[in-house]
Amino acid sequence: MPTLAETRRILADPTRIVVLTGAGMSTEAGVPDFRSPGGLYSSDFHGMHPEDLLHVDTLRNQPELFYEYLRTRLAFSAKPDASYRMLAELERAGRVIGVVTQNIDGLHHEAGSQSVVEAHGTLARFSCARCGRAADTATMMTPGTAIRCECGGLIRPEVVLYGEGLDALDDAIDLVAEADAMLVLGTSLLVHPVAGLPQLLLRQGKPVVIVNREATPYADYAGVVEINAGIGETLPELFG
Q: Where in this chain does the record put each Deacetylase sirtuin-type domain (predicted)?
């Protein structure tokens, strides 16, 4: 296993790094986890599993229930931490060409990153499904606020719900194709198709560096350096 200094050199040589982020990036900034024991997906709501509540059919057929869950369980508030700000700085410095994120909290944009592919969409934006008019996010997350637009259309978060396809996947693939290295932060790389993105670089002999507290399925792949530690403590060591 390469030392930290050797890993720094691996990331120093490439001039175009693409970053892939997952839940671990958000949880370090204070966003509740979804899938871990005790996370947002660990308990039912009105007898329904969260994955069913966040299904496109529930939004269409039971929008009041959908919004009750959204406003009760997903009304978290968090701000980008130093790791988010560092990625934005690395982009401005020309080291990072962009971020592909599985997270839906919008923190990369808030931190100042410009090239961001939100593979699963975002809860930071709402718009009318009929006319496309944007709606204020804070207002839409407030209980009692009308969930229909002036045109009569249903207002919805711009997040990919269960039962919907990942329209942004092609954008993610295009961004990864421009890179000569990948930095993976805070994802177990278990949820496909996003978990397959590192393969696009590995097949070309390009390096992938993973920082995640738990081991991932890529740990023993040739061309992969995996560091099982926190992001906040590791990023400054890699780029400081």
A: 1-240
Catalytic status, residue 192: no
pLDDT for the residue numbered 25: 95
| Structural domain that includes position 174 | 4-31+79-120+165-239
**pLDDT, position 26:** 93
- Given 138, 159, 180, the domain boundary residue is 159
Strands 134-135 and 121-128: antiparallel
At residue 75, the pLDDT reads 79
Q: Within the chain, which residues score under 50 in pLDDT?
A: none
Looking at 159, 181, 209, the residue that finishes a domain is: 159
pTM equals: 0.92
> Which amino acids are annotated as binding site, given as ranges?
128, 131, 149, 151
Cα(118)–Cα(167) distance, integer angstroms: 10
User: Which residue do the tokens 């177990």 mark?
Assistant: 188
Query: Residues annotated as binding site for Zn(2+)?
Result: 128, 131, 149, 151
User: Do 175 and 203 belong to one domain?
Assistant: yes
